[in-house]
Each structure stands twice: as structure tokens, then as C-alpha cells.
């Protein structure tokens, strides 16, 4: 039963906490195929967030730009499969938020350490913005910044905690957002980092 924190933003507090060990185990298998790496922005900066992907498409960034691609540039192989339980979690979360036919074809996996920030940006590399994005936060808590439709718009802070699931759709799908800080600590399953899964319809 989601809490609408802003129009188009549905928060399912703790909805993934009971799946943490399963997700962590499946993440280990994914990382054996496609490990975390620091991609470079088109402008040549090394990203602070370490990323990988699973599913038919993975999100990549290099000097040619940001895009989705069916092959992992590191391994030159397809991305690992999206675990069925992950697809189910994303699908059920979207359903509760009012998106009954969300079928993600990409899951971007982000890893943050306590010194990692993610500057304000919009997610607009997907083909059709009518689809929501479902995000799952695991491990250390993060101070999330939610802005407006313009970079200079005011931001609100939301503390994203272990197990939180958010569905970002409709009028909030193209809002600026970022991560300003990760709370130091140690999570019993995830250790000294925060992992975020974002489920998307890329194509
Ligand atoms: C609001 N990830 O991968 S998740 C990203 O914590 C990204 O790793 C952050 O921003 C993270 O692009 C934030 C929450 C999130 C994800 C997608 C959004 C918020 C969003 C898309 C539109 C608006
Ligand atoms: Fe984003």
C-alpha cells in the first residue's frame, strides 16, 4: 500500500527487506558474469558510482554517449539474465503503484560507498517515458534529492533506506534527481555499501 510522497512517486517502505538475502545471493552470481565497473561520461569523467546491469539491455556510458546496449562492453557478451524474483518484485511494485503492465527489459545496478555522490540528472535514455522506473534500495541509507523539471528547481530530501521500493512515473518520470550522501555504517547483508537496482523499460 504505497505512500504517495509526490504526484507520480509511490514509496513502498521496506517492501524488499525480506528479499535482501535472496537479492544479495543473485547479485553475486550476476557480478561473476558482469562485475561492477566505473564507466566514463561522454565528457571523459570517471563516474563515482560503480555500475553493472542485468536483463536484455544494460545502460552504458562512454565517449560516444549514454545508451542501452544488449552486450556488456567489458565482457563482449550479453548481460546476465534478470532473476525471475527480481522481475516479480518490480512488476508487483509497479502494479501497486498503478502501472499494471510493467515489463522491465533492463535492470541497472548501482553501487555506492560512503564517499559516493550522484549529481542531479534526468533519466531520459529510455525510448518511452510512459513506463515508470522502479528502484530498490539495499544496504546503507542514502540522502536522495528530488528536484523538479528544471535543474535549477528546488529539491526535497528523501532518506532512502534498506528495502525501500519506489515507483517513479507519470509527471515525476522526468524530474531531476541525485544522491547527496551515503550514511556511514555496516549493513549485516550488504556490508559497507549501498546497492540500488533500477528496473526500466529501455526499449
Ligand atoms: C526519479 N539512481 O540510476 S534511484 C539512476 O540511488 C539513479 O542509484 C539513483 O538515479 C540511485 O539513474 C536513484 C531513484 C530514482 C531512479 C530513477 C528516477 C529516482 C528517479 C527517474 C526519474 C525520477
Ligand atoms: Fe537517475
Automatic annotation (TrEMBL):
Quote the PANTHER family the UniProt record gives.
ALKYLATED DNA REPAIR PROTEIN ALKB-RELATED, NUCLEIC ACID DIOXYGENASE ALKBH1
Q: Do you know which NCBIfam families this protein is assigned to?
A: PRK15401.1
Q: Which residues bind substrate?
A: 59, 66-68, 125, 151
- Which cofactors must be present for this protein to function? Fe(2+)
Tell me the enzyme class: oxidoreductase
What would be an example GO MF term here? oxidative RNA demethylase activity
Q: What is its EC number?
A: 1.14.11.33
Keyword tags: Dioxygenase, Iron, Metal-binding, Oxidoreductase
Record's GO cellular component terms: cytoplasm
Q: Which gene encodes it?
A: alkB
Which InterPro entries does the protein's record reference?
A: Alkb, AlkB-like, AlkB-like_sf, Oxoglu/Fe-dep_dioxygenase_dom
Q: What is this protein called?
A: DNA oxidative demethylase AlkB
Q: How is the cofactor bound?
A: Binds 1 Fe(2+) ion per subunit.
**Which residues are 2-oxoglutarate-binding?**
110-112, 194-200
The Fe2OG dioxygenase domain covers which part of the protein? 103-203
Annotated residues for binding of Fe cation: 121, 123, 177
UniProt-listed SUPFAM superfamilies? Clavaminate synthase-like
* GO terms for biological process, alphabetical: oxidative RNA demethylation
Amino acid at each position: 500500500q504505497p505512500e504517495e510522497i509526490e504526484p507520480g512517486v509511490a514509496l513502498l517502505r521496506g517492501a524488499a527487506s525480506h528479499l535482501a538475502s535472496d537479492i544479495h545471493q543473485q547479485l553475486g552470481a550476476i557480478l561473476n558474469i558482469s562485475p561492477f565497473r566505473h564507466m566514463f561520461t561522454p565528457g571523459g569523467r570517471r563516474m563515482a558510482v560503480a555500475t553493472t546491469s542485468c536483463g536484455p539491455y544494460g545502460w552504458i556510458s562512454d565517449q560516444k554517449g549514454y545508451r542501452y546496449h544488449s552486450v556488456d562492453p567489458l565482457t563482449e557478451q550479453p548481460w546476465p539474465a534478470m532473476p525471475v524474483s527480481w522481475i516479480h518484485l518490480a512488476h508487483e511494485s509497479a502494479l501497486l503503484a498503478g502501472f499494471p503492465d510493467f515489463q522491465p527489459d533492463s535492470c541497472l545496478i548501482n553501487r555506492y560507498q560512503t564517499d559516493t555522490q550522484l549529481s542531479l540528472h534526468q533519466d531520459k535514455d529510455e525510448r518511452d517515458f510512459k513506463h515508470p522506473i522502479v528502484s530498490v534500495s539495499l544496504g546503507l541509507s542514502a540522502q536522495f534529492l528530488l528536484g523538479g523539471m528544471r535543474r535549477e528547481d528546488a529539491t526535497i530530501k528523501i532518506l532512502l533506506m534498506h528495502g525501500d521500493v519506489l515507483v517513479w512515473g507519470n509527471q515525476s518520470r522526468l524530474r531531476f534527481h541525485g544522491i547527496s550522501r551515503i550514511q556511514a555504517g555496516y549493513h549485516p547483508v550488504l556490508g559497507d555499501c549501498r546497492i540500488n537496482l533500477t528496473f526500466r523499460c529501455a526499449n
